[in-house]
């Protein structure tokens, strides 16, 4: 059969139109056969809105591709070539609960890290593994492009516990690449090579090669003195501590403010929670508005408003990755993939987020020079947190859960941690069956 | 010349009588020639009180050993066989300042760790290195027994930056050994082998061998269910989190409550600071009372009251170590020494606190089985903190100081850290010359 | 029951009288209950001779201990406290065959290394594992003292594939310790601490501590200039290459002549094979003479002639180890035990030969400082050879066997290796069932 | 100035016409300004012949580029953009001497490995470092493309002891890539990704990716059963031992026959030395014929006869690398570059031969999955040999030289090694000044 079958899991997401736009833009390099939208019962209505918008967008672009909606994941997966995973276990309500539990205990409430990231991973990983098991059966040659959060842990869980060809994606390095291009005054992003390395939401720019020179010191000087275009909209653009960039000689991704500026972030979050609402609450309101817009039968393009959503370029990265694989483009992209020695000091079989050459056979990571010891120690600590979290997500073992969380620098230890963990497990009663099986 | 020359640096310490008692008890195995007491001008009066008490104690024991007081360290070091280092740079006032700065910024204030440990190390290490340089010249064969805090970092600094034969000591493993003996109902501590490993104030009991069995699980069960005699008096005896001992299968030393129960410790410290005073303030009052007692011309033994001081057994360990070296005893003691692969995953040339066979040629560490990954990560992180701290102490470089502190789990990051570091440097103006040279 | 039950596997060995002598010498520290001699049908006659001599020796010493001979290993193992393993799979005939095959292909023929060591391991390991399985059932608390060759590989196989408490022994470090004592002019071996590390028959003296000094440079100078008393009688006492000791700053054990002087050893062996016979052939003749002597009903002590046998002190080490364990002696002995990080760069769960403190709970290895890189590489290569050999011994897989041998520096590669391996498998038809099961 | 200045060191080599042909073929992508030929007095005549041929070849191609001959290396290096290093220290005579010394002692005589590789490295590295020092001064931004043998060690020496941007090249992976293309039936080599890793002349094919599949097992099956087109002409095309390819699941480069089939190679070399001559002698005769041909004033293209020379594709690789750097081609090539963690288990700052993305800023190595332990051990051993050799080449220290050689599996140890080393030093009196300075 000619043309690709693409399945989108969690298709009711407000991000889907960006994905559709990306596919339309690449119509000449990515021949499509069928587009399958999958969601669960709770997302049926949103998916319907998205499906209609998708059909209008395709029609406007002159594409006559079948768009199929289903609650039956298996029929969507059967024979698929690419599977995009972008679901949110427990919906935004669960994310908001995580944030509120965290802040109640004086902890940062964040979707991919700390207590919130832990809870999210525990809800999500069992579902991701179920999808992977179905893919092994129904589309063993398909690529899984995962942008379901926490993307690093979910990708690692799938890579370790299945034979599925999975790649994790994130918009953070995409935004950094665009920001660096702007600072260097480059028209094309391929005019330089930016190499990143680390874990998802925990990466560092290691070098920016242009014309035989490493421009990293220059870029560090620029963002130290002027505006910093490397920060996504959903992260407070606090200036980095004066000692950080100079001391490290590397640029941390914006999410590293959660570590290097944890107290400021916590104050900011506490203020927001008492004001306009937590990030989850703000996003929920924004999403409602977006779906209002999506419903408009005259809308046949991705609306401008989506760009305020925070996850910008996620879907563009996904489409570019599909094309790079399909067309053996051999371009450099930044992806979550198996470490296999790429970052020395992290386990071989863990997932890392690194710059890789994308070939028809998937990503071939570029080697990464050894990290300075202090940064390596943080990466190792975080990876241990991630691996214990994955283990707890699967087993539902509370000892393991506690050992994971007590390692995490965003979490405070002692009685507060024991209570916070109890609250997470209690308030996710239906969403964490493994933890409740034990009792 | 027959008999040993012993020099005590910081002899005006209230602990000195315990050291004297230990020497008296070992009079038949440790022949002494001269006892030199050294202090600085600010400690002259305390040293005089100690010297008089020492002479009375020796007389009472029937020993006719010369006891010499001096402010001239070089004459005390010349030809010494053992040098006991137990000074406190900046006296208790500096410790109290560290505590108050820390608590003001919402941080744990502790003498050997976190912000306070950092400040203490920065004050102390340059002095320790000056002593080591003098020892290289004046008594190159002498053993330096260091119990100056932070003992681990001070010992490492001396081991890395001099050729002095240095061993660091701590009372924490001594108290643990006695506690375990009590739980096992052993008359003699040598009835079992307790092996510890880690960093100073950051050790874990790895095995408790008795009659071919590892009693560690039994001891864990005992301290989980009943009283915990492994805790020194100066650490709040909070019960360990339920997940910790079971999860790890190891017993952390009491100081690890600063990590695994950081929030409870912080609350406790904040309460104390607003009540009876910080630990430093309490100790200061206690010391004044001790020196009142020491002044009593009728006192000729170590007074009972010293046992409330917290540093119990420090000096006993020092005397036992001297005797074990001098007599080639080949007993197992717990000391700070060069790692050289003892703990896998830590640098070869760093200092670790481990169980070692004590010979005439010094400590030969027993090998340590690999740590579980989550504990290893903490040890590695702490060692990176320690090494950056040592580097900052010597160079006075603020970037390095910040990089050290931002790694430490007891320290919060962001603006709060930048301000706290500024305060430490500002309020130690005369005590941190390296940091002020820079400006 | 009071007193120890000791089982000797391979009791028909000509070494047994030394073991009996050692037990008699330690009669006051090692209370015995029963002594069981075990052998197979082929060794029945030799065992009978040994048993009679043993009874005469015990009687002469005034000991009334039951000495039981059996071909039924299980009854000997039942409830044993110590099991001494000293059997030779395939008897001396197999060893001689190995030597002849090796020399025929231009290879060194040696019992514990190279092609011969490989063949010996493949014959022996399955039997050792069968014994270990029986011990798990019949005497789970017993200690297995293994001096069956190749001792390092056999010990590792048992440690990895059973729960038996096994310690491997060798006379090489014992002879080195005695030689060093002689060079230092020490009356007692405990006057100094000699630390060795490496693999069985592949160890290096790392330090010789006496009075706070490392005497290693002095001892190196002595054996460079004068006679070398560290060499067992069965190794050609070639002088070390001039560059070796000076370059390394360590003393290799005598067996390392097989590596560092492989060509001279090969020439020597070829000469012997064409003259008085291979080592195995010489030993066979010697054994026959020994058994003649053993038969003498008037003989009631270990005969002088045994000392020419090469394995001197093996049994003394075994008796000393039994006593050190039984009496919690906490002396330093040199044993084969689990690495667990003792030698950095070798796998945690492999067997290494190192200096260890012997306690009632077994050996606690002293930590070993990192090896210089060139020696570490040899150790790693040899360990890979050993591990592949163990794997081949169990599986009978020829690919694995080839991969083991092609790594070994004593073996030449190419067609010669393929033929030599074929010959080993063919000429051990009945002794290597795993390899023949495959066909 | 527009256009590139290229300097060729050792321009009197018979390979130079291939280099010229490569430059002519790339005339549209590599704009040239000046071509400088450099050699020493002994090579003056050959260089003159090459220079004339070069001018004829350029003229025939319609290129009007200045071709300058010089014995003054500095004027050639001044302002150069690319420096091609292809000299042979001591000329073919030295190579032949190495071969004859080796064979006389029963050792393999080979130009890049074993005793011959050692001798060659010791002659060459001091000169390579002198060139690098001049480049730092005269053309600090130039790229050094090294194909002077032993290419791996020479490249490492330059990378470690200078700041020159050096890349080492070899024709072995080029030939393997072409062989694989032939076996896969691919028109274009870019239709698949072949990844190699190891050390120079010691590499393994790790994967052959095509259409999302790893074709390595298929290619292994092909060369096991049929002809093996991956072997250069100068290596005996012995079939691999049956256990090797199946056991490893990787394809060793042809030079690994020197290890895995050392005995067959040695027999072959001994036969050749007694027959048509050693490889060096054969090459010498071939070179004389080639220079006869080069002299022909009618010759204006690279002659067919050069293809029999063994070093085929060396120069093509060099030209392609120049173009890939100059044009930021981002193609994958196989080069010697700094390890920096690319191959786990080898030092960070050593040179490795790996597949890399070639950018304007030089090679970015692709990450390499961990090697199986047995192969890693060989790589580590060889790297230790290389590093000790480099150290000996610089210091002239005989202890170090011996320690290097005794590690090498191609060298036999004992008296034979001591004599062979003496002979190498003695017979290279003028070519190894560092070794003779010592005496």
TrEMBL record, chains A, B, C, D:
Pfam families: Glyco_hydro_4, Glyco_hydro_4C. Its cofactor is NAD(+). The keyword Phosphoprotein does not apply. The keyword Transport does not apply. GO terms for molecular function: 6-phospho-beta-glucosidase activity. It is an enzyme of class 3 (hydrolase). This is 6-phospho-beta-glucosidase.
């Amino acid at each position: 059969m000619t043309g690709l079958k693409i399945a989108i899991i969690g298709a009711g997401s407000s991000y889907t139109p960006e994905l559709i736009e990306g596919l339309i833009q690449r119509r000449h390099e990515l021949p499509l056969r069928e587009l399958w939208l999958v969601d669960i019962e709770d997302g049926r209505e949103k998916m319907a809105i998205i499906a209609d918008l998708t059909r209008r967008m395709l029609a406007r672009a002159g594409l006559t591709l079948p768009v199929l909606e289903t609650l039956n994941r298996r029929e969507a997966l059967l024979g698929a070539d690419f599977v995009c995973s972008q679901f949110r276990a427990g919906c935004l309500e669960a994310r908001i609960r995580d944030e509120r539990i965290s802040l109640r205990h004086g902890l940062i409430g964040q979707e991919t890290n700390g207590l919130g990231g832990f809870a999210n991973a525990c809800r999500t990983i069992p579902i991701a593994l179920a999808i992977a098991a179905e893919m092994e059966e129904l589309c063993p040659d398909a690529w899984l492009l995962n942008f379901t959060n926490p993307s690093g842990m979910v990708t690692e869980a799938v890579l370790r516990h299945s034979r599925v060809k999975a790649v994790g994606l994130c918009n953070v390095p995409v935004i950094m690449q665009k920001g660096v291009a702007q600072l260097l005054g480059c028209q094309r992003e391929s005019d330089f090579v930016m190499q990143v390395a680390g874990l998802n939401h925990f990466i560092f720019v290691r070098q920016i090669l242009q014309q035989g020179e490493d421009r990293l010191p220059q870029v560090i000087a620029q963002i130290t003195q002027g505006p910093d275009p490397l920060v996504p909209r959903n992260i407070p653009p606090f200036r980095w501590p004066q000692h950080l960039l100079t001391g490290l000689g590397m640029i941390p991704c914006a999410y590293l403010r959660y570590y290097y500026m944890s107290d400021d972030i916590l104050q900011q979050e506490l203020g927001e929670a008492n004001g306009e609402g937590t990030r989850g609450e703000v996003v929920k309101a924004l999403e409602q508005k977006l779906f209002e817009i999506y419903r408009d039968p005259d809308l046949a393009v991705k609306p401008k408003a989506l760009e305020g959503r925070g996850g910008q370029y996620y879907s563009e990265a996904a489409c570019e990755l599909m094309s790079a694989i399909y067309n053996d483009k051999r371009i450099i992209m930044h992806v979550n993939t198996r470490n296999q020695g790429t970052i020395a000091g992290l386990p071989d079989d863990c997932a890392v987020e690194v710059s890789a050459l994308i070939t028809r056979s998937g990503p071939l990571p570029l080697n990464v020079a050894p990290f300075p010891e202090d940064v390596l120690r943080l990466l190792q600590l975080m990876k241990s947190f991630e691996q214990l979290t994955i283990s707890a997500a699967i087993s539902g073992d509370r000892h393991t859960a506690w050992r994971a969380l007590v390692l995490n620098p965003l979490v405070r230890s002692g009685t507060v941690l024991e209570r916070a963990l109890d609250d997470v497990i209690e308030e996710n009663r239906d969403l964490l069956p493994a933890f409740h099986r034990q009792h």
